[in-house]
Amino acid sequence: xxxxxxxxxxxxxxxxxxxxxxxxxxxxxxxxxxxxxxxxxxxxxxxxxxxxxxxxxxxxxxxxxxxxxxxxxxxxxxxxxxxxxxxxxxxx
Length: 92
What we know:
- The protein is mainly beta.
- It has strands at 5-11, 15-21, 23-28, 31-35, 42-45, 50-55, 61-74, 77-87.
């Protein structure tokens, strides 16, 4: 089994999603960022409008449209703190 990241996606009013993932992709103000297990710690400001993509084991991918917030990567995993997060339109 491949290494996993623990991911928390939290909006202002609720926890949107929490679980294990193989990779997280987010667009920050510095550019698009892919986070894999073992990534160096960082704190990034999310670009607006933006989208978070969470790749789970087995190839399933979740996508959320987000507005504002931050992405934090630590040794424990990835935390995304967004002002607003809604499931993305799968037709994209």
